[in-house]
Specification:
binds S-adenosylmethionine; Trp Operon Repressor, Chain A; two-stranded antiparallel ribbon; 2 domains; Alpha/beta knot
């Protein structure tokens, strides 16, 4: 899978995209991440990417030419991309969208800055507009990393334990069950005895019930019946 991230600050993304899951996916050649500075597609000697808004108002707006030229160049180089424009006004990104994007061969993420984009960038290319929540950041770089990581960890072979994404929160609609590790007793709080029983079927049933309770208490909106993450019995064995 190829991600192209269009940004004015590739250096801000460089370290993170070489670290942890994104770095592992790159090393295993399961994902490529191409950071592209669309300032390189300007044609004036000041390398101008933004200008004042027509009609007045605060701030600067990203000009259409460098961005459209950059996207067209990438598509000539690699073929068509699923093109995502990052904006607070987009549809809210979530796990279902991550699963959908994980099926794509090529995804392009466009990071805005300043007051956002000249509207003709929207008109000229076929975009899907995504937001990572109802708040405003200063740029699309953190949203791009958020989306890239949520997608890449779903690619087969990326996570160490193939099953771990299966029981994560949202994978089956609800939240994950409570997790414990050593020590067995911490400041008087004991690990639930069922987790020490070795009975994998009962452990799986307990986890499913805990996930269901947790979802209905904390996120009743997630499913009509209160939700619940079901865990395959073989997963219980791996924990
Ligand atoms: C300061 S914001 C521009 C906000 C714009 N004036 C508005 O009101 O919608 C600059 C850029 O940050 C990115 N951005 C900010 N918040 C975001 C969010 N919640 N989700 C996705 N992208 C976001 C977008 O790429 C946006 O173009």
């Amino acid at each position: 899978m190829l991600f192209a991230i269009l940004t004015l600050f590739p250096e801000a993304l460089e370290a993170y995209t070489h670290t942890s899951i994104l770095g592992i996916a790159r090393e295993k050649d399961l994902a490529q991440i191409r950071l592209v500075d669309f300032r390189d597609f300007t044609r004036d000697r000041h390398r101008t990417v933004d200008d004042r808004p027509y009609g007045g108002g605060p701030g600067m707006v990203l000009k259409p030419e460098p961005i459209v030229d950059c996207v067209e160049w990438l598509e000539r180089e690699h073929g068509p991309f699923r093109k995502v424009l990052l904006t607070p006004g987009g549809a809210t990104f979530g796990q279902r969208k991550a699963e959908e994007l994980a099926e794509c061969e090529r995804v392009l993420l466009l990071c805005g800055r300043y007051e956002g984009f000249d509207e003709r960038i929207r008109a000229e290319l076929d975009w899907e507009e995504l937001s990572i929540g109802d708040f405003v950041l200063s740029g699309g770089e953190l949203p791009a990393l958020t989306i890239a990581e949520a997608v890449v960890r779903l690619l087969p072979g990326v996570l160490g334990n193939e099953l771990s994404a299966e029981s994560d929160s949202f994978a089956n609609g609800g939240l994950e069950y409570p997790q414990y590790t050593r020590p067995q007793v911490f400041r008087g709080h004991e690990v639930p005895s069922i987790l020490l029983s070795g009975d994998h079927a009962r452990i799986a049933a307990w986890r499913a019930e805990e996930a269901r309770k947790r979802t209905s208490e904390r996120r009743p909106d997630l499913t009509a019946d209160g939700g619940g993450t079901t865990i395959p019995a073989r997963h219980a064995r791996d924990r």
